Amino acid sequence: MKKITVALAGNPNCGKTTIFNLLTGARQHVGNYPGVTVEKKEGLCKYADHEMTVVDLPGTYSLTAFSVEELVARNFILQEQPDVVVDIVDASGVERNLYLATQLIEMNVPLVLAFNMSDLAEQKGLLFDIEQLSRLLEAKIIPMVGNKGRGRKELLDAIVERAAQGKSGRTHQVGYGEEIEHELAMIEQVLVREEPELAAKYGARWVAGKLLEQDDELTLRVQSRDVLGAVTASITHLKGIFADKPEAVMADRRYGFISGACQETIRTTVESRHSYSDMIDAVVTNPTLGVPIFLMLMYLVFFLTFKVGTYPMGWLEWFFEWAGQAITGLWPAGSESWLQSLLVDGVIGGVGGVIVFLPNILLLFLAIALLEDTGYMARAAFIMDRVMHKIGLHGKSFIPMLVGFGCSVPAIMATRILENRRNRLTTIMVIPLMSCGARLTIYALIIPAFFSESWHGPMMWLIYLIGIVLAIICIKVLRLTVLRGETVPFVMELPPYRMPTLRSISIHMWQRGWMYLRKAGTIILAISIVLWIASSFPKPPGESLRNLSPQQAQQKRLEYSVIGRFGRVIEPAIRPLGFDWKIGTALIGATAAKEVFVSQLAIVYAVGSEDEGTTTLRRRLRGTYTPLTGFCIMLFCLIYAPCVATIAMTRQETNSWGWASFQFLGMTVLAYVLTLFVYQVGNRIAG
Amino acid sequence: MRQQHIEQNNARPLSAVRSGEKVRLAGIEAGRDLHSRLMAMGLVPNTEITVVSNKHPGPFVIMVKNSRMVLGRGMAHKIMVSACDHEKNNSRLSGQS
Lengths: 687, 97
Fold this sequence. Notes:
The complex is a heterodimer.
Chain A: E1 2-10, H1 16-24, E2 28-32, E3 39-47, E4 50-56, H2 68-80, E5 84-90, H3 94-106, E6 111-116, H4 118-123, E7 126-128, H5 130-137, E8 140-143, H6 152-165, H7 178-194, H8 196-202, H9 204-212, H10 216-221, H11 225-242, H12 246-265, E9 266-268, H13 276-284, H14 290-308, H15 310-328, H16 338-355, H17 358-374, H18 376-390, H19 398-403, H20 408-414, H21 421-430, H22 437-450, H23 453-480, E10 491-493, H24 502-536, H25 550-560, H26 562-569, H27 571-574, H28 581-589, H29 596-604, H30 611-624, H31 627-639, H32 644-654, H33 657-686
Parallel strand pairs in A: 1-4, 1-5, 5-6, 6-8
Antiparallel strand pairs in A: 2-3, 3-4, 7-9
Chain B: H1 2-9, E1 12-13, E2 22-28, H2 32-40, E3 48-54, E4 60-64, E5 67-71, H3 73-78, E6 79-83
Antiparallel strand pairs in B: 1-6, 2-3, 2-6, 3-4, 4-5
């Protein structure tokens, strides 16, 4: 069994994922590239006595140093030196797609070209002379129809064959024309002399080309002043000749190389005017219909994720409750031990708390896969872009933020639809400000307790609105500080509409679900157990619980525990917000999951948490606090520390504890400052 | 200065081109970052651009090298184009050499 590495490169929307799925099936591993929030997909494929590790590179149009995605793809090829690079080309837009191929050719990688969607190209009336084109590009070309599984064997054969040939020189390069070639040769000479290591590692011609293009990364790696001097001189010289930057001229020449190769090998037989894609677009991007259609589809996504999702969630909750009771039953009544509590409340409660999100995540990614695979996502991004752009985000950010109103955990995962790292991080950071379903239970407790019937609606509306406004402000602040950078003006490809395949959608769902369980799930479980320990230990002495009702005993135990004590310790700090230690205790407990706030408060007030208990609890709250405090509780709960599941998700998706702690601390500080302000000002006005 | 330049080359912003018209790209006024991205997406000088849709409110959709792209209006102001010589219109796959 021979082990080889195969990298898949290609433009966005070229059907790269489909080919990746076709090659690897479900044997995939999804993670991030080290240190960056760029998704890395890897899979295994066994074929003809070869074990191939297939790596799906980020979808890019070129390999410059301008974006993290392109840099990641480029560095993977340079550093890992894959045995074969397969460039997936959308055959219906072959010229534009081959631009990436020219850059791979320049890097002198062992290249195989997969002409995907060749059925679509045929429909468009494009006829290829594959033999001839493949000779011109010096790479084998395999026509494929990824979503129908056509061409898999041929591609695998070509990969095996190419891998066996090893590295080999090319007979002709992409030519840049006399003037540039002359400068390139000069820089190459200096390079080989002054920076032999760099030249040997990546090839002198490629490095020289990148330096002429003023590639930031490579320029930084050059130490020799002679080289940099030669490059600067060449750039000035070329600018004089072409009245344009060398990089622009070089891009132009690459397209020249492509159209030269295509002119002889591609024929167009029919001129198709109106495709079905145009007809669909006429409706869905229509100025009046576009937004309603989008909102309706978003409603369906939300409905599918959270309404349909409640059924399997209910079954899971029922199952875990049953499992808990079954284990409780193992101990005779009255002899409950800490081990039982650990198993039932800690482990089963914790695992249940992890699994309970799974239906949401699977259904959400079913919806997202449908939107992406059909091609609608690009339109959705465009429709929302006008609004989202104003606040500094991409149109696509709207979708995760909307999902955030259901639950932050799947929402953060949904930011994977964003290609740009800065957009993705910004979106992740503000998602917890969207009031999720769990916080709704807090509002539902507080609002009727302090406000009259006619204020219920406006209050609820106000608290949601505050979250949205804060999110917009935070986005602005983040974009001006830690996530600074040019907001990329909107340019996006509109891929043709396609029929999604069951296979790709199910792989997509399975991948996300598994990734959630394995990565975020373990962190959520660990933190839940820690929180359980903190709320159950130390135990009060047995005699102090004598003669107490079950509710009072429960209250006593919570007060005595680490969380209860901590609630008292922080009381001086939260007093200026109008909170006492009871609220403090509930707030700390609620970091496990925000809805826990309600049950914890019920415990510290020694009331049951059933319906009758809620009414009693509301009465107790009304008797203890002012409406201003009630509002401050909601405000604080809206903003402060996201729940452990959210933190775990942020950690996993950003691949850094730094961002997760930044979110945790940032939100808590923001909540504190804002609530402090509201409470103090409100108190002055009232008093 | 810029006005003069535009008049000389008969160039106008892409945003002023009506739906269905074919034009040639003359230049892009953008930073290096964006410029390089646009070039990678096929927007190099002399490329033929077909404006698929330019209705006011509505998407600005163009066809470049057989792929369909949607642009923000701001973007369309920054792309300068000139008239396309009609004799060449029928030659396939961007007539540049």
